[in-house]
């Protein structure tokens, strides 16, 4: 019960005080030593409940550019809870975009698991995508996602705001 309360408090505080985490914005991450650049969307918060969330899934998009100016479009998925999913490599992200199934290959979360204060956990995974896939989400009426873990699967649906976030991100990536 204590873990549940602390996790709930962490998510609530995040909603109240960390507006950039749960509201749409774009962040640029650059590493001059490794010579890469990531343009990452934040704010696609998919809680298990709008009124009393007990866990949190963030379903964001990013563009990764390496030292040779090669681009990769990816989904950046973040799980916050008190139980691990243990996301494997492979097709562990499944999308239903207006009823059409799309399987996305990912790198797993084995290198990206953190225990947070109070016993909550953060688990992140990156999945391959394309600008066309981002566009399909941005223009869809219904988008559902299934994140497959070893311990359990998580199923969520994007609301109008989440889909609008993809529209904004695609617009930012394709302008200029």
Give start-end ranges of low-pLDDT stretches: 15-20
Number of helices: 4
The N- to C-terminal Cα distance equals: 51 Å
Gyration radius, rounded: 16 Å
Shape: globular
Helix content: 10-25%
Q: Give the percentage of residues in beta strands.
A: 35-45%
Structural class: alpha+beta
- Write down the secondary-structure element order: HHEEEEEEEEEHEEH
Largest sheet: 7 strands, antiparallel
Mean pLDDT: 89
Number of strands: 11
Reconstruct the topology from this structure:
Layout (H helix, E strand, L loop, with lengths): L1 H16 L1 H4 L2 E7 L4 E7 L2 E3 L8 E10 L5 E11 L8 E8 L2 E7 L6 E3 L5 E8 L2 H8 L4 E6 L4 E5 L2 H15 L2
Antiparallel strand pairs: 1-2, 2-4, 3-4, 4-5, 5-9, 6-7, 6-10, 8-9, 10-11
Overview in brief:
The chain has helices spanning 2-17, 19-22, 131-138, 160-174, and strands spanning 25-31, 36-42, 45-47, 56-65, 71-81, 90-97, 100-106, 113-115, 121-128, 143-148, 153-157. With 176 residues, the protein is an alpha+beta fold. It starts with a helix and ends with a helix.
